[in-house]
Write a structure and sequence with these properties.
316 residues; alpha/beta; Nucleotidyltransferase, domain 5; 11 helices; 7 strands; 13% strand; globular; binds 5'-O-[(R)-(carboxyoxy)(hydroxy)phosphoryl]adenosine; binds zinc ion
């Protein structure tokens, strides 16, 4: 399989001053971006609509307003060009980045998708076959990164900013809580550690204005960022490896925006090695949302004849 083009229309600057994605703004920005991005993808690939053999689109999960724009545009393309429509699960697409990178993990494997909207574990039996094992009961890991970056005034998206700030910080400076939710649970919780960061920075009664007006020394920010990152990474690494052992699988697949985090990648590699597990990390360039992973799943759906009806609906 070869990727001819993969255009990403970011809208970070629209959400930055809110410290996170605002669904209504995201939806409007999708309306404005969908046609220019589609044209650009065709141009960069050097193909015309008549050369296409199918249209793949993310139908679930995600922000409903944004999903609806993609699904509506894909239906229009599919109908007008007489092409099969393929409905892609976004979390499966994040896992697929390992295959897209040309690797074939031994199966079954335990897969972790760690992104802005999800922190989920699956038992993976194939590129299209994933059984849900558990996920976050509150904030996703990426969401916690974004919210903590907001508290520390590091900008949006928070993940890369926290990673950068943490480089000069001490990961043991603050002992932030780790939520284990019971030894055998494949679920996650990250709202406690986010609140603990807020209390550590501003006490228990901080208002929105206090957060906006706060100022911290660079070393304080670096130490809090490093200690927060370590707390999140500890939980992601241990739970993923424990879940793999509990299900007697020999390999782990990891994808999603937070999987770009260098500390998480390094700690996963070390822990997998020490437990004798094979680690398949999505390449950094494919961790955050991209079109190629959606098209990749689409190829498998097409090969299996799993076309979606035009009545397929977007689901959050
Ligand atoms: O997968 P993704 O692009 O979008 C969703 O499907 O949600 O993930 C975006 C999330 C954001 O929360 C962002 O802060 C986080 O991934 N992220 C990171 C890093 N790069 C992106 N988190 C930690 N470290 C990073 N280097
Ligand atoms: Zn994503």
């Amino acid at each position: 399989m070869r990727t001819l083009s993969s255009v990403v229309g970011t809208q970070h600057e629209l959400h930055e001053r809110f410290g996170g994605v605002v669904p209504e703004i995201a939806c409007r920005a999708h309306i404005e971006a969908i046609l220019p991005v589609t044209h650009q993808a065709l141009d960069e690939a050097g193909v015309s609509p008549g050369d296409l053999s199918a249209v793949a689109v993310t139908t679930t999960p995600g922000l409903i307003g944004s999903l609806l724009i993609g699904v509506t545009a894909a239906k229009a393309l599919s109908w007008s060009l007489g092409l099969p429509l393929l409905a892609v699960n976004h979390l499966h697409a994040h896992i697929y980045c390992v295959w897209l990178d040309g690797r074939s993990p031994p199966l079954p494997a335990v897969s972790l998708v760690v992104s802005g909207g999800h922190t989920s574990l699956f038992l993976t039996e194939g590129p299209l076959a994933h059984a849900y094992l558990g996920g976050t009961v509150d904030d996703a890991a990426g969401e916690a990164f974004d919210k903590v970056a907001n508290i520390l005034k590091l900008g949006y998206p928070g993940g890369p900013a926290i990673e950068e700030a943490a480089r000069t910080g001490n990961p043991r400076a603050v002992d932030f809580p780790r939520s284990w939710l019971g030894a055998a649970a494949a679920d996650f919780s990250f709202s406690g550690v986010k609140t603990a960061v807020l209390y550590h920075c501003l006490g228990q009664n901080a208002s929105k204005e206090d957060i906006e007006n706060a100022s911290y020394s660079p070393q304080f920010v670096a130490d809090v960022a490093a200690s927060f990152q370590e707390a999140v990474v500890d939980v992601l690494v241990k739970k993923t490896c424990d879940t793999a052992e509990r299900h007697h699988v020999g390999s782990i697949i990891v994808g999603g925006g937070v999987a770009a985090n260098a500390r998480l990648r390094e700690r996963l590699a070390a822990e997998a090695r020490s437990r004798g597990l094979e680690l398949y990390l999505a390449p950094k360039r494919l961790c955050t949302d991209n079109a190629a992973m959606t098209a990749g799943i689409g190829c498998h759906l097409l090969a299996e004849g799993r076309q979606a009806p035009l009545s397929v609906e977007a689901a959050p």
